[in-house]
Amino acid sequence: MKGYNRLEQIMDFLKSHNLVTVDQLVAATNASPATIRRDLIKLDQEGVISRTHGGVTLNRFIPSQPTTLEKAQRSPLEKQAIASAAAALVKAGDAIVLDAGTTMIELARQITHLPLRVITSDLHIALFLSEFKRIEVTIIGGRIDDSSQSCIGDHGRRLLQTIWPDLAFVSCNGWDLEKGITAPTEEKAALKRDLMANARRRILLADSSKYGAWSLFNIAPLASLTDIVTDAHLPDKTREALETLSPQLIIAD
């Protein structure tokens, strides 16, 4: 098994167990004890897990900022399904804002047949959509964040504060019923708040693997959204809890 896929498998196992031993991870991944120990050292150094004498536990706080390439390798089928469900919300002539991220990139691929005005912070999305004459693209500008290859900072925030889009699609590092949607830095959280603030519909695109995890900075409570689009792996109990909120919950099959 490739190293990256094994780390993902370890993370998935940790999410469903409070305390995990090396032997359990060996059985779950078919890797050697030495390989598992090296993986755990790496995850510990990144702040993802805590190691104790009894085993390891997952830190629910998420400090790391993976690259766009790393994110693209995570839950690709779920992201495609979420993007397809989100694309169904977009109509010809809409003015939409697209946040940065791999699910947003997938959404951009699925709306190229429509005449649209698109405002985005994501460099990949801006360059891709600029190839389509039916789509008018505005990039918000500002300083480039190297982890997401997107624009952040006050320049982009000022532009976002002056527009009134039909739809705003926002991404996050983690989402939770109690803690809302979160981002790893104050700058990103502030930009995402402005991205949604004036939109007629405020739509979160987040796969189920991010539910129950959070980063340091709050973006907004879930109740401030109009729609949440996620995948079919969201547990039934979580669905029931989310359905008590005001946002429309859209499950992408």
UniProtKB/TrEMBL annotation:
InterPro entries: Carb_Metab_HTH_regulators, DeoR-like_C, DeoR_HTH, NagB/RpiA_transferase-like, Tscrpt_reg_HTH_DeoR_CS, WH-like_DNA-bd_sf, WH_DNA-bd_sf. Gene3D superfamilies: 3.40.50.1360, Winged helix-like DNA-binding domain superfamily/Winged helix DNA-binding domain. It comes from the Bacteria. The keyword Cell inner membrane does not apply. Signal peptide: none annotated. Keywords: DNA-binding, Transcription, Transcription regulation. Residues 3-58 form the HTH deoR-type domain. GO terms for molecular function: DNA binding; DNA-binding transcription factor activity. PANTHER family: HTH-TYPE TRANSCRIPTIONAL REGULATOR SRLR-RELATED, LYSR FAMILY TRANSCRIPTIONAL REGULATOR. This is DeoR/GlpR transcriptional regulator. It comes from Klebsiella pneumoniae.
